[in-house]
Amino acid sequence: MTNPNSILIVKLSAIGDVVHALPLLEVLKSNFPKARIDWMVEEEASQIITAHPAIDQVIISRRKLWQDRLFTFAGFRTSVNEAAGLLRSLRSREYDLVIDLQGLLKSGILMGISRGKRKIGMSGAREGSGFFLNESPISVDYDQHAIDRYLKVAEYLGCDGFKWKGHIPVSSSDMKNIDLVLEEGFSAEDSLVAINPIARWDTKLWETKRFAELADRLTRELSIKIIFTGSMNDRVAVEEISKRMDSKSLNLVGRTTLKELAYLYSRCSALVTTDTGPMHIAAAMECPVIALFGPTAPWRTGPYGQKHEVVRADLMCSPCFKKKCQHMTCMDQIRVESVFEAVKKVLNR
Prior knowledge:
With 349 residues, this protein is α/β, with parallel strands linked by helices. It has 14 helices and 11 strands.
């Protein structure tokens, strides 16, 4: 099989999914060092791969913004013009290989529009996206972790070396910004633990009072300094947690870029988090993770590696993969003591 000289990866979202695809990117680059590698991604997750040394061009889709603008005349014209520019960029180059890692209609259409000699993807593709492949889908096991599934693509392509780190590239300015924030609030001897308490699914959430109790115990019993992280949308919930606490903490919710967040986690001794994108950012930066899992499967999308701890209730109904639930027993049965002991276990390593 001839080595490809140009590769397009289509992995649009979400943040954690894009992080999971970084090992495949590194393996492809190490096996095909002379190949040009471009990556099509949606705007929200684009920071993860911007300035990655293995990528020649990041092609950004602003699909969600375009959809929001469609209902105004000026916005409609702008969206149409920008989308047309994206398609021209996509069509401007012929690729030896196009890889659809998303497996949804939105990625399938983009693959169909692209000019690629070989168009490949994995089994289990949904919404008819498999129609746009020109080779049989690569068989993968969806009870494997996402990283291992993506590496099956490299195996299919005949790659030999599978050494990778999966780190998110950060710049000196990203590091400087975070270092300045930490220097203002902490000393070099302080042990820092980040808490990222919010997730997009209601069923992944843990009670705010329990996060407050956990943070206080870590501060009081282990002399830990607590940093809260999250997006701007998480601000109200994290402020509620802070108000319930007796101890002090640093609230960086909505104050970091994704790359700054990645570097912040690399400075922390551990991260306590729900099942959400920042969990995967921390794991990629080799920050030990204590992950709270309920409706989803940690063996599929948990923090990758041996240094992490998953805390979950062993229930017959979990994982259910439901975004709505009337009782949320799987998260309700996770006790503060269990999470506290998991943090101690990680820190003692």
